[in-house]
UniProtKB/TrEMBL annotation, chains A, B:
Pathway: Cofactor biosynthesis; NAD(+) biosynthesis; NAD(+) from deamido-NAD(+) (L-Gln route): step 1/1. Pfam families: CN_hydrolase (PF00795), NAD_synthase (PF02540). Belongs to the NAD synthetase family. The active site is at E44, K126, C162. This is Glutamine-dependent NAD(+) synthetase. Gene3D superfamilies: Carbon-nitrogen hydrolase (3.60.110.10), HUPs (3.40.50.620). Catalyzes the ATP-dependent amidation of deamido-NAD to form NAD. Uses L-glutamine as a nitrogen source. One of its GO terms (molecular function) is nitrilase activity. One of its GO terms (cellular component) is cytoplasm.
Length: 584, 584
């Protein structure tokens, strides 16, 4: 049977930076070509970055993407790589640019270009647009109408873009078209506890399509999404042949032996499920037999390590892609800001992390000593700015009490952080966790201030788990555990009045998080949550807090998606929303 | 020909408050019935409010809407209004609740219920989902598959929901079904300078469908949208028969003489464009001849009055629907906060509007006197809190200079406003205009603080026009012009350093607004903007400011949509976006 060497380029593009992404693609084509690959496959929309949202509908951006794709194909030939088949995701446009109701402006398409011999020899647009959770593709793209089959060295190769793989159809289409290999470019964000759904799906589709399947995903953070890579290849029996490590760039090679294309060319007007099957012959001649190489098969990470890595990569790329030099965060000695400090040091290195301790009249002694201990262990920069003089200056005019006085302290801290940020150029981190965000247990324009929120999608009980995991990981690797034990073990407090504890306002976090899981993650109604065995009064309390906190959530900085229902792009409800769940 | 009295209920529902909306509908049914109407028509999704976004996919909410619709039909019969045909928009669900990829969770539909005799006798779901600009319906709803024709007193009546009217099809369907009247329930947000596109469209569709057409729209504010009503009725020749006033609730009656339904019932399996035509006979007997009443025909408002009213209604409903008692805003004496103060007084009454003057070391004398003059003219409450002591307290620790020092003053003001808001329960208003928002000319966590931004979609040059219009309107009505002349005529300044003027950082507003119109409203690329005759350096400057200000815009409070490209729901681009327009 004919052989093919396929390279999967698991790379980290930057949304909007077409020149950077072109250079990134070219560099990986060179490496693939040098290593003898016949096909190199890139992630979905690698040339523009992903997701581009309403940028899709800017005529100047569509034109830039199309021009860059043509130039890339020419450049490959100019650099004597014209024989390499490069499959590159980009932003394309329906020919003739139709307009009208129901067609996104400028008729953009989420497409792949098949480059060979200095030109784009085939292009295929995504059929099934991703239109739920964090995906908004029905708003931004025109679905494709073709299935492309490209013959490469005597092997028929078909394409399915991301979401297309999840629907019934593409593998059946590959089978109908008698393709021996299905290429699947993806922009598939990380989500915790997916088990191994990607491998399971790839294996099933390969068996259904009677073809090998190469799945390539991007890596890196993009605003609220983190892409984890996990690119993989299975054979037509669904057996795993190769798998890339998560969260890092990699050029994964696999050698395949595949059935030869049938001699007879099917009719040019073949269709499948309303999609036109387009065939292109790049080369009918099989490659000379060669000795296959072995491929790496990475083991997926354990749950806690996977989440921690996602948080680190999300923060790192938000900082790098937005060209910040450093981050600054308020360090209260509490577990949330302490974990954020550890994540920041892992993401950027200690020399780019600046902590501020802002003791007030109500701060405990350990709030300062725990922050100092974190700085000592990790090497981050820590300074102290006491807030009593500023708080007093406000109180001389305003004489606030109760909640207004509590919030004042939090806001004075935020003004200090933002002043230092403006003066020294740091990105401010907001250190709230998902349980707080869900219930509105934060001060707007106070601790909610910042440009990025590293743990906004991490529930409080998971914050503790991750802290313990990080310390255990350090110990297992002979390093100093970064997180002071006292930050993990002490009872959580906002320290905005004497003796305050979170449990004064909220149920214990084990119960709160379980109710939030039912009400938010699983979308159960309040009555259904009670039916799971929770106390009705507690459920009513939590549900009311969640329903009323939407405005605060909207104003919170972006942070990396970890769960199926993050409070960014996943779950969009009106601010003015008087829907109240009833328990009856 | 048979007669029908149709009532169009132009009402203001509240998103999520199903009980309130049910009562509102019932009250209007009573009034319509009492006035002898045979049909009463309500806006799109009036029972749930609109738009409901991801609430559509909560099973408990779908169930509440369906239950409320059934109860409403029963209630109408119980109150002896069973003979009235009530056409009520609600959140429905595909029978059997199919699930799978491509189907929104719980299979929700944007539907209307036709109520008669104590039950729902027909239901029709929207065919063409609104999926551009501020609409996200493809994410939230399953499109409908039926066209319903209901015979009422011997007249065949068809239905087209909102967006369905804009596509080719529904009027042709009405014609194919030989309906004599097309009912069109809408949730159509206000947008300036639409000319009279609604009337033109209704007239064209009526002629195409050879049927009279009754178009009902909601009124009121919902987060970033304002619905302006403008309900209207045209006859089969496209002549305007009745029109409701904009921005206020109204029950509009019209008497129609319409062709009788043909005796022969078309086949039960008729289809049009893939939609199944379902027929229901409510009553075949024409009503006894009666003397028709005349109908009001309101004149649409002039452009400036229309925009001003939209801003007033948007603010009023955000305050009322979120149950705030009052608003608080910083009054700098500049035109933006002054106009916001005037709008707030018009929306809520002076006794619910609280202004704060926060003079600093760099404030001019007129910043205080102009604010006092506004308070004197309108009667709003004004207090003064000087910020120098608080600024000094921060500077003792931080010694900030330059932009950091400027921002510090703005943020200290915001802490004062939020302290007063927390202590006294006011909603804080952010007073920035669209030109500032576009270019990022504001301080995040400073003047950008607040729960609602009344003029965030109003460009600076329009701010001045609206201020002049408001004063002229007062003079024409023998009232005191609310806005001090000096606030309109003085050159704009942030007053954050000595002698500062906006033109130190930005082009003159006439030029800036024209460039923003091309780059933002019309989506032109930078090179195309230059080709319109603007200076290339100025365009590059403005485009760079706009591209880099996305994070600030995201953090800005919501405000009423006025233009085709507001910076809320209309235009969604990534924060991490390195796309840079090139002039070459």
């Amino acid at each position: 049977m004919p052989q093919l060497r396929v390279a999967l380029a698991q790379v980290n593009p930057i949304v909007g930076n077409v020149a950077h992404n072109s250079a990134l693609i070219l560099e990986h084509c060179r490496a693939a070509h040098e290593a003898g690959a016949h096909i190199v496959l890139f992630p979905e929309m690698v040339l523009t970055g992903y997701p581009i949202e309403d940028l899709a509908m800017r005529a100047s951006f569509v034109a830039a993407s199309r021009r860059a794709a043509d130039e890339l194909a020419e450049r490959l030939a100019a650099e004597k790589m014209g024989d390499l088949v490069a499959v590159v995701g980009f932003l394309d446009q329906v020919p003739g640019v139709p307009s009208g109701f129901g067609i996104p402006k400028n008729a953009p398409q989420n497409s792949v270009a098949v480059m060979h011999g200095g030109e784009i020899v085939a292009r295929q647009a995504k059929h099934h647009l991703w239109n739920y959770g964090v995906g908004d593709e029905a708003r931004n793209f025109v679905p494709g109408s073709t299935i492309n089959v490209v013959q490469v060295h005597g092997v028929d190769v078909a394409i399915a873009i991301c979401e297309d793989l999840w629907r019934d159809g593409p593998s059946a289409a590959a089978r109908a078209a008698e393709a021996a290999l299905l290429l699947v470019p993806n922009g598939s964000p990380y989500e915790a506890n997916k088990d191994d759904v990607r491998f399971d799906l790839c294996a099933r589709r390969a068996v259904e399509g009677e073809c090998a399947l190469a799945y390539v995903n991007m890596v890196g953070g993009q605003d609220e999404l983190v892409f984890d890579g996990d690119s993989l290849v299975v054979d037509a029996e669904g057996r795993l042949l190769a798998r890339a490590a998560q969260f890092s760039e990699e050029l994964l090679f696999v050698d395949l032996e595949l059935p030869a294309a049938t001699d007879t060319m099917p009719s040019t007007d073949a269709t499948f499920s309303g999609l036109h099957i387009e065939r292109t012959i790049v080369s009918a001649e099989p490659v000379a037999p060669y000795e296959p190489l072995g491929s790496p098969v990475a083991t997926p990470l354990d749950d806690l390590e996977e989440i921690y890595r996602a948080l680190v990569v999300g923060l790192r790329d938000y900082v790098e892609k937005n060209e910040f030099r450093s981050v600054l965060l308020g360090l209260s000695g509490g577990i949330d800001s302490t974990l954020c400090g550890a994540i920041a040091v892992d993401a950027l290195g200690a020399e780019r992390v600046f902590g501020v301790s802002n003791p007030s009249a109500y701060s405990t002694e350990h709030s300062r000593t725990d922050a100092e201990e974190l700085a000592r262990r990790t090497g981050l920069d820590l300074r102290t700015v006491a807030i009593a003089p500023m708080v007093d200056a406000f109180q001389d005019s305003l004489s606030l009490s109760g909640l207004a006085e509590e919030n004042l302290q939090s806001r004075v801290r935020a003004v200090v952080w933002m002043g230092l940020s403006n003066a020294e150029g740091h990105l401010v981190l907001a250190c709230g966790n998902k349980s707080e965000l869900a219930t509105g247990y934060s001060t707007i324009y106070g601790d909610a201030v910042g440009g990025y929120a590293p743990i906004k999608d991490v529930r409080k009980t998971l914050v503790w788990e991750l802290a313990r995991w990080r310390n255990a990981y350090a110990e297992a690797h002979g390093e100093v555990p970064p997180i002071p034990e006292n930050a993990i073990s002490k009872p959580p407090s906002a320290e905005l009045r004497p003796g305050q504890l979170d449990t004064d306002s909220l149920p214990p976090y084990e119960i709160l998080d379980a109710i939030l899981d039912a009400y938010v993650e699983r979308d159960l109604g309040a009555a259904a949550v009670v039916a799971e065995g929770f106390d009705a009064t507690t459920v009513e309390h939590v549900v009311t807090l969640v329903d009323r906190a939407e405005y605060k959530r909207r104003q919170y900085p972006p942070g990396p998606k970890v769960t199926a229902r993050n409070f960014g792009r996943d779950r969009r409800v009106p601010i003015t929303n008087r829907w109240r769940e009833h328990l009856g």
